[in-house]
Design brief:
Elements (H helix, E strand, L loop, with lengths): L2 H23 L5 H25 L9 E9 L4 E7 L3 H19 L9 H18 L5 H10 L1 H11 L4 H29 L7 H9 L5 H18 L8 H8 L2 H26 L1 H27 L4 H21 L3 H32 L4 H4 L3 H4 L1 H14 L6 H14 L9 H29 L6 H4 L8 H19 L2 H15 L5
Antiparallel strand pairs: 1-2
Helix pairs in contact: 1-2, 1-4, 2-3, 2-4, 3-4, 3-11, 3-14, 3-21, 4-5, 4-6, 5-7, 6-7, 7-9, 7-10, 8-11, 9-11, 9-12, 10-13, 11-12, 11-13, 11-14, 12-13, 12-19, 13-14, 13-18, 13-19, 14-17, 14-18, 14-21, 14-22, 17-19, 18-19, 18-21
Length: about 500
């Protein structure tokens, strides 16, 4: 492997951070230049990521590729260890694509109170933190990238959010910081109990799989790290920060929060918690499955009660991430593949939903379903059509990306891993709950479309001139719309990438 291959993923990951520093040096008042720089730096990082994806050896998805492992903090043996396998590649590439599309979207609109330099710099800093989490194979490095996203998102919500932005930002910060404390304690515990002491994720996986950690230790450590990951997902009942954060965040914040940040928690389960602490995962799996099943049904019922369009989409994220966690809880290759597919599909679909809701708000200046009053298809046919399409994708229509993650998660729940053979009946109950959740999901999305898209245009909007989808929105949205169809029709585009790495990881739970 040459020097370019060793450094390419680091260059792509840190390019946005470099872009943030460059933007910070741009004189005030150069808003167009700042927006252009945001597009340039996110585009450059995306091009490198796509080039690496093209050069990825898909016949060998389990071993790390483009790996760089070098000394970083010798005194604690923390290393700069990065790489990509079939599990991290889709999420890493998705981070750059979605960030680039968000940068394009900002060419048209930066929310009040403006401050374009700060807004773009924080968005680029956020991109580096999210991308780095998916390539880090040292727990200290993983934690630093994990925490790097906290401050930018706090300010994006707190400065550019809606009326209750301060409350939502503080709630987001406190919840995630609380989870991170327990996660860090779990990381430190694994370091001190491993022999020799190491933060390297691959070495810890080998140590854990070889029985190096006692069952009692695994139960405690898994509980600590799982709590940190569960808050980020967020799993019920740690979800209450999410509707507030989504509702108050600016459109770009909501898109990146739903599209990428939530996946950091589920990725943490797959990358860290399950393979390093397999006995702990086995013990907690029924409880994770229970919380996931509750989340699916609870979120669907909550969506039926929502009057705010954006809050409804926010609660739908809790349900969709419930399907992801249900797949993870089965400890099967099908379930983990379903989880990764669900992560990517949710990033595409729900990110697109928040784009649509943001555009509806830009035109109507309200998110209240009753105030919009229906008739969107008549007033703005293109926006209404895209919104209907993405909503139908989100409810899991076969042939679109939202279908495969959900149906595979339910399928894996019917036959969980052999180590859970005494819990088969319980997991089949979870499968039934998930099936009920899919019916309720279809119900609330169709009811929402009936109230927003259908019917006649209310009198208060009839004479108001509202622009339909503009060019910048089309450019931002078309790649996501195409990907939603492509993954729905050809799921192997993603499953062919993840399956080898998942099979290797899940041999721990064969039986």
């Amino acid at each position: 492997m040459n020097a370019w291959e060793e450094s390419a993923i680091s260059i792509a990951t840190f390019l946005p951070l470099l872009g943030a520093l460059v933007i910070a040096l741009v004189p005030r008042g150069k808003d167009r230049l700042v927006r252009g720089l945001g597009i340039v730096f996110t585009a450059a990082a995306m091009v490198i990521a796509i080039a690496l994806a093209i050069g990825f050896d898909y016949g060998s998805g389990a071993p790390l590729q483009f790996e760089l492992n070098t000394a970083w903090i010798p005194v604690i043996d923390a290393r700069y260890h990065v790489g990509i396998d079939g599990i991290s590649l889709p999420l890493w590439v998705l981070t750059f694509i979605l960030s680039f599309l968000c940068a394009i979207y900002t060419w048209r609109y930066v929310p009040s109170p403006g401050k374009t330099k700060a807004f773009l710099a924080l968005m680029l800093m956020l991109e580096t933190g999210m991308a780095g989490t998916f390539i880090a194979f040292d727990l200290i490095l993983f934690f630093i990238f994990w925490e790097l996203v906290l401050v930018p998102m706090y300010f994006l919500i707190g400065i550019w959010g809606s009326e209750n932005r301060e409350y939502a930002a503080i709630k987001f910060f406190l919840y995630t910081l609380f989870g991170s404390i327990f996660m860090l304690l779990g990381f430190l515990a694994m370091y001190f109990r491993s022999a020799p002491h190491t933060f390297d994720i691959l070495e810890l996986q080998a140590y854990g799989a070889g029985g190096g950690f006692s069952r009692t230790f695994q139960l405690v450590a898994f509980g600590a790290v799982a709590l940190g990951f569960a808050v980020k997902v967020p799993m019920w009942p740690f979800h209450t920060w999410l509707p507030d954060a989504h509702t108050e965040a600016p459109t770009i914040g909501s898109v990146l929060l739903a599209g990428i940040m939530l996946k950091m928690g589920t990725y943490g389960f797959v990358r860290v918690a399950l393979p390093i602490l397999p006995e702990g995962a086995q013990a907690y799996a029924p409880w994770i499955g229970l919380l996931a099943a509750i989340a699916i049904v609870y979120a669907a019922l909550a969506c039926l009660a929502q009057k705010d369009l954006k809050r409804l989409i926010a609660f739908s994220s809790v349900g969709h991430m419930g399907f992801v966690m249900l797949g993870i809880a089965t400890l099967t290759p099908i379930g983990i593949n379903a989880a990764i597919f669900g992560m990517v599909a949710h990033g595409l679909i729900t990110g697109m939903l928040f784009f649509c809701v943001g555009s509806v708000y830009d035109r109507y200046h309200t998110r209240q379903i009753a105030e919009i009053g229906g008739g969107l298809m008549q007033k703005l046919p293109y926006l209404g059509g895209v919104f209907a399409f993405v909503s139908i994708a989100s409810l899991g229509l076969p042939g679109l990306a939202g279908f495969w993650g959900e149906v595979m998660a339910l399928l894996s729940s019917y036959n969980p891993a052999g180590v859970l053979s005494d819990q088969v009946g319980l997991f089949r109950v979870f499968m039934v709950a998930g099936g009920i959740g899919t019916i309720l999901t279809a119900g609330y999305f169709l009811w929402m479309l009936q109230r927003v898209n259908m019917g006649t245009v209310p009198d208060r909007w009839r004479e108001t001139a509202l622009p339909d989808i503009v060019a910048v929105e089309w450019i931002s949205w078309v790649p996501l719309l195409v990907a939603i169809v492509a993954l729905g029709v050809f799921p192997r585009l993603l499953l062919g990438v993840t399956d080898g790495a998942v099979e290797s990881l899940m041999r721990l739970f064969a039986g």
